[in-house]
């Protein structure tokens, strides 16, 4: 197991370097970041040249990348155009997005898996059909529609929640945005769990467990669910990264100042340092989440335990 | 279960409301009047007077700083604020006397040195100030801020402190309306704390205006409170303003509807249809010093050959400005009939109808003129714009539609979108525009000079199309040397006629500023820069 973890960690290095290089190239190819800094007018050449020098933009791209990566390993992600350290932006943005992600993941796990188990055990019954129909609706409606609709109904019409989240973004204000963010994945989790449960319900070990006279609750949680959760865990694991990076729409609607907001601003202002910095951290999050998923496999099913 | 969850939401909302109330009440400092909340956008640059060139940062500086002059929020006229006297005999050497009794909110006195130091800082190349060119008229600018290479001086030779409250300015050319430019925030004075502990100052700027900054969380909120010691006449009529950063103006509007926000100073285009029904009288829309034009790439020989002025005039006549402003902008923009803005007023140089027939929709004449001028270069017109903000796509498509209809050819004009503003600006800077491109101009100060010289003077800072005309340049030079304001304005208008006769750029429409507010507020108005006049707003 230990060797497996080390091997996986080593594998992460080329993936990390490749991913950051790609995003670095993409952001740099987009054009001259200084051009948009002076509003509708052109920056005067001397100031533009000096800014370019200061941000290291006058050097060849490969050299910029090397310097950048060198700095990253010492924890220096550079400075955004508004004079703030990118690490400072991260320190304010990531906690908010992590809270939002936790809320979303909790919704996925609790509601998604419960609904999945219920429908999987009652396949073909009215409960199953109606939940399936509901998930279909959720999947097909875009997030921004769900978000704006909930915001309008709960926030403005009925006044149950604040339509926007305050800068501190405590957990209770993130419930509605978290639900919106989770909605699509939640539907997938339900469907995945349902299929998996329905499949495994007919397997030999479940029949054995039932024949042994084990209580129904224990059969479901210890035998059926544990084996059925593997595809669901994979999905939720990779979803962590997707939720953190893909929260742009939700964060915009509810005015949450998280990672999505910073990325959006960074792209709009072509702020290389912000975009590359945040994406670098997101790549790391993705990699770690994937690693955790693979490790969890081994816990759930000893048969796929490596070496 | 359902009921329980509702209760939790309600509790959350109540807690948030309590927190907001505590925040508002705690810091108002016993001034007795209420604090209002207003929508805000994250400033693009560090908040320094000579480094802020966009509306969001400018909004704050306008609350925190007062300069030698101040633009009247109603008329736009430059009025003395800290200036006791600005004297000149030759429109080139100015002696400026600063009023007595003004201090920064940290207690430090505002002296002649506060201005001279601030201007030297703003002009110096090593400080990377984006508004440095504002000091370009002052003698010695080319040493402090050379176009290439390193600076050979740290201070402007044209600035001299002659007493605690007096200093002299020597310009490198005659510029009679120079005093009127001094209301721009770039010319604000700075306290010594700015220079001694720059990082701390940036975290919490200290100025001499009616408000002082109570707390500033970058990227999310700034709390400004009334400064009780403010010596000016335009004291704040409210206890303070909480500026909240919104990523999307739609969310700000929703918050206003839900009663969580008092003032939105940018009503989203999508809400313009409902805004009257939603807000009634609490929606305002007034002209701002902003004009949209279509500029041309004169560096491209096919757009600069003789006869092309006919094509450009023809294109101008092919655009149905009236219909576009009505249907797309819901009348929040006014068809342009000159190259300035109505906020200047007739005395300031706005001349309604100066463009004449050339800006009147006339499809038949348009087609004729374009054919006489040799037709569209390359047979097709590509209008470039940035698609990321400002619903530019809609109007560019509409303009193209209008041109296509006039020419009877639905392939004559197409939009050429750019993904981001930075990319768009970059391509403009590299002179790669394939045809006309969107050019918006927001005035720096309400002077006709500001609508003409930076945009059309040979090699001027914002002359992106590289248009050049000797007659125009001469008229502008004469106008700047003219000490009689009315005569100067007349000369500028003559210069504007040169722009018209060559159709250097097609004027499209003047833009309005818009705002919506809650029923807690009264006396809300927008100044000519389309920024709310915060200090005059009354709460409750």
Automatic annotation (TrEMBL), chain A:
Stored CDD domains: TM_PBP2 (cd06261)
What the entry lists under PROSITE patterns is as follows: ABC_TM1 (PS50928)
Subcellular location field = Cell membrane
The topology of this chain with respect to the membrane is:
Multi-pass membrane protein
Q: Which InterPro entries match?
A: BPD_transp_1_N, MetI-like, MetI-like_sf
Q: What transmembrane ranges does the database entry give?
A: 12-31, 98-119, 131-154, 174-193, 224-249, 275-300
Q: Origin, by domain of life?
A: Bacteria
Q: What is its main location?
A: membrane
**Domain called ABC transmembrane type-1: residue spans:** 94-297
Which keywords does this chain's UniProt record carry? Cell membrane, Membrane, Transmembrane, Transmembrane helix, Transport
Pfam families cross-referenced by the UniProt entry = BPD_transp_1 (PF00528), BPD_transp_1_N (PF19300)
- Member of which family? Belongs to the binding-protein-dependent transport system permease family.
Name the chain's protein. ABC transporter permease
Q: Which organism is it from?
A: Streptomyces yaanensis
UniProtKB/TrEMBL annotation, chain B:
InterPro entries listed in its UniProt record? Peptide/Ni-bd, SBP_5, SBP_5_dom
Ordered alphabetically, the record's keywords are: Signal
Keyword hit for Methyltransferase: no
Keyword hit for Cytoplasm: no
**Entry's Pfam families?**
SBP_bac_5 (PF00496)
Query: Where does the record locate the signal sequence feature?
Result: 1-21
- Looking at the record, the residues that make up the Solute-binding protein family domain are 81-462
- Annotated region Disordered: where? 33-56
Q: What SUPFAM superfamilies does the annotation carry?
A: Periplasmic binding protein-like II
> Which PANTHER family does this entry report, sorted A to Z?
ABC TRANSPORTER SUBSTRATE-BINDING PROTEIN, PERIPLASMIC BINDING COMPONENT OF ABC TRANSPORTER
Q: What is the protein name stated in its UniProt record?
A: ABC transporter substrate-binding protein
User: Which species?
Assistant: Streptomyces yaanensis
């Amino acid at each position: 197991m230990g060797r497996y973890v080390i091997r996986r960690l080593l594998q992460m290095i080329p993936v990390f370097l490749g991913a950051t290089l790609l995003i670095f190239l993409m952001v740099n190819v987009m054009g001259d970041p200084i051009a948009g800094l002076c509003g509708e007018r052109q920056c005067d050449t001397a100031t533009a040249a000096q800014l370019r020098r200061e941000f290291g933009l006058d050097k060849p791209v490969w050299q910029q990348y090397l310097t950048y990566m060198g700095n990253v390993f010492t924890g220096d992600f550079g400075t955004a155009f508004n004079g703030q350290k990118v690490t400072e932006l991260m320190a304010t943005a990531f906690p908010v997005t992590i809270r939002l992600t936790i809320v979303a993941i909790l919704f996925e796990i609790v509601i998604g898996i419960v609904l999945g188990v219920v429908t999987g055990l009652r396949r073909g019954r009215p409960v199953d059909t109606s939940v399936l129909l509901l998930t279909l609706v959720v999947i097909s409606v875009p997030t921004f529609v769900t978000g704006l609709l909930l915001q309008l109904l709960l926030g403005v019409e009925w006044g149950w929640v604040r339509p926007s989240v305050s800068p501190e973004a405590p957990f209770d204000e993130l419930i509605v945005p978290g639900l919106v963010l989770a909605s699509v994945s939640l539907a997938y989790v339900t469907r995945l769990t349902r299929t998996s449960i329905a499949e495994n319900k007919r397997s030999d070990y479940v029949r054995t467990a039932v024949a042994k006279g084990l209580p129904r609750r224990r059969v479901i949680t210890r035998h059926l669910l544990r084996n059925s959760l593997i595809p669901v865990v994979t999905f939720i694991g990779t979803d962590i990264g997707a939720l953190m990076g893909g929260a742009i729409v939700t964060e915009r609607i509810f005015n949450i100042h998280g990672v999505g907001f910073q990325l959006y601003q960074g792209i709009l202002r072509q702020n290389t340092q912000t975009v590359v910095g945040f994406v670098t951290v997101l790549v790391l999050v993705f990699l770690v989440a994937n690693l955790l998923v693979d490790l969890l496999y081994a816990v759930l099913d000893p048969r796929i335990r490596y070496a | 279960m359902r009921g329980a969850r509702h209760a939790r939401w309600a509790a959350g909302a109540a807690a948030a409301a309590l927190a907001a109330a505590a925040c508002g009440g705690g810091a108002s400092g016993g001034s007795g009047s209420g604090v209002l909340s207003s929508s805000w956008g994250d400033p693009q640059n560090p908040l320094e007077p000579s480094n802020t060139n966009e509306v969001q940062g400018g909004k704050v500086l306008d609350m925190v700083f007062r300069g030698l002059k101040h633009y009247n929020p109603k008329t736009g006229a430059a009025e003395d604020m800290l200036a006791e006297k600005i004297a000149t005999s030759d429109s080139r050497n100015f002696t400026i006397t600063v009023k007595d009794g003004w201090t920064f909110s940290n207690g430090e006195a505002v002296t002649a040195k506060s201005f001279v130091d601030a201007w030297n800082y703003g002009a110096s190349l090593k400080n990377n100030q984006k508004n440095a060119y504002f000091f370009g008229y002052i003698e010695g600018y080319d040493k402090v801020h050379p176009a290439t290479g390193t600076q050979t001086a740290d201070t402007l030779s044209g600035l001299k402190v002659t007493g605690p409250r007096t200093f002299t300015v020597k310009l490198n050319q005659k510029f009679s309306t120079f005093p009127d430019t001094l209301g721009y925030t770039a010319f604000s004075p700075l306290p010594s704390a700015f220079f001694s502990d720059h990082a701390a100052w940036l975290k919490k700027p200290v100025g001499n205006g009616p408000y002082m900054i109570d707390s500033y969380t970058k990227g999310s909120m700034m709390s400004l409170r009334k400064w009780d010691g403010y010596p000016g006449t335009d004291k704040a009529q409210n206890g303070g303003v909480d500026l909240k950063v919104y990523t999307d103006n739609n969310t700000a509007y929703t918050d206003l509807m839900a009663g969580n926000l008092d003032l939105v100073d940018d009503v989203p285009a999508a809400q313009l249809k409902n805004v009257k029904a939603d807000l009634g009288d609490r929606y305002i829309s007034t002209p701002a010093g902003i004009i949209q034009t279509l500029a041309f790439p004169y560096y491209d020989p096919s757009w600069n050959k003789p006869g092309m002025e006919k094509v450009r005039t023809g294109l101008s006549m092919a655009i149905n400005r009236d219909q576009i402003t009505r249907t797309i902008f819901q009348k929040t923009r006014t068809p342009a009939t000159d190259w300035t803005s109505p906020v200047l007023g007739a005395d300031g140089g706005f001349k309604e109808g100066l463009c004449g027939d050339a800006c009147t929709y006339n499809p038949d004449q348009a087609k004729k003129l374009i054919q006489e001028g040799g037709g569209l270069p390359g047979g097709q017109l590509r209008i470039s714009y940035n698609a990321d903000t400002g619903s530019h796509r809609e109007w560019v498509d509409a303009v193209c539609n209008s041109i296509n209809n006039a020419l009877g050819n639905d392939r004559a004009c197409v939009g050429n979108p750019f993904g981001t503003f930075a990319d768009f600006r970059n391509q403009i800077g590299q002179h790669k525009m394939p045809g006309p491109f969107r050019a918006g101009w927001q005035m720096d100060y309400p002077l006709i000079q500001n609508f003409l010289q930076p945009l059309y003077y040979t090699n001027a800072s914002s002359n992106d199309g590289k248009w050049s005309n000797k007659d125009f340049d001469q008229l502008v030079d004469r106008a700047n040397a003219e000490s009689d304001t009315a005569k100067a304005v007349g000369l500028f208008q003559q210069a504007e006629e040169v722009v018209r006769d060559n159709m250097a750029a097609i004027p499209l429409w003047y833009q309005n500023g818009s705002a919506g507010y809650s029923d807690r507020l009264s006396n809300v108005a927008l100044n000519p820069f389309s920024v709310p006049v915060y200090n005059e707003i009354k709460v409750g």
